[in-house]
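[Meeting: bench + compute handoff]

Bench side (C.D.) handed over the final construct sequence. Compute side (W.E.) agreed to return the predicted structure before the next meeting so the bench team could plan truncations. Sequence as handed over:
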Amino acid sequence: MNSNPYEVLGVARDASDADIKKAYHKLVMKYHPDRNAGDKVAEEKFKEVNNAFDILKDPQKRAAYDRFGDAAFAGGNGASAGAGFGAGANPFGAGGFNFNMGGAGMDDILREAMRGFGFGDFGGGDPRASAANRRGRDLLDEVVIDLKDAFFGKTHTVKFSSNVECEKCHGNGTADGKPAPACTRCGGAGYVRTQQGFFAMEAPCPECGGTGHKIDKKCSDCDGTGTVHKSRTLEVKIPAGIDDGARLRLAGQGEAGSNGAPAGDFYLDVRVRPDSRFERVGADLIAQMDIPFTTLALGGEIDVETIDDKTLSVKVPAGTQVGERLRVRGHGMPGRRAGTFGDLYIQIGIKIPTKLTDKQKKLLAEFAETKPGKKGWF
């Protein structure tokens, strides 16, 4: 497997994020398992492409790779081994997932890079450092909904594939399904340490190969990893009143961790389309309406449609000016507190008639010739 992410995606080292996303989308569609059923070569290419993108899409990982190369991900902090596809829209337009949103931070990357060069981490061993027992990757999808959906709330169905816990061994990777015993040499850490003067040197445990445990007989379904790749469906409830750009989190619904480690989380970014009738400002809605001059001058009532398709009769005070707003309380978007709603504002406009009858022209001319009775007259 090619470990150079730039070569895998076919982009230059100074490629922009947009170029990287474009190359990734093209390749992941080409090698996706759904299009290449039973093709082992395509399956490996699919994993390779996702590994590469997982590195290059993350500024910290990309910087670490540019500086340290493969050593930046020694010990298991590399990219994801696979990706899934969701039904919702996303930056690539085809439902591609982003991985490892909450995964290894720069401290972990540097620690593994130092290990790759033969140095210790200077801060004592991390009991969670076993590469074979890492938390599962986080998954991210995006959905675009209408303003009305944001008003009522809805359930969004996401279909994708990812690593899940092996049912046969319960995620332990063992043939009998029981947790594997900790390695007696490293105590389950996966690394052994030797002191040479000032430096503490760490290396993968030769007894367990850095896994932290020994599996004498591996599970036949997952080959000892504790996870298998399967298609999945999630029902994500989008709450009423959700804001554009909000991120929903489903704890433990990401990729399964290896060898019994906790699963990652699933995140759904929600984008709300602009609406042709209403402008949203927080929990308030603004609707532009053209009202006849006579109604503005003399007062009257107008029919107003709300976001939930109701029709309200709204009173227009005499002398209402163009540009003013009429407030209709409680007919905006659901508020942050249960049972509360924003307001609906009617932005007053006027439409000037372009075709008048002779009688209408005469009446308007007579009106224009009348003398003002007081200051502020039209």
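W.E. noted at the follow-up: The radius of gyration is 31 Å. C.D. will use this when planning the next construct.
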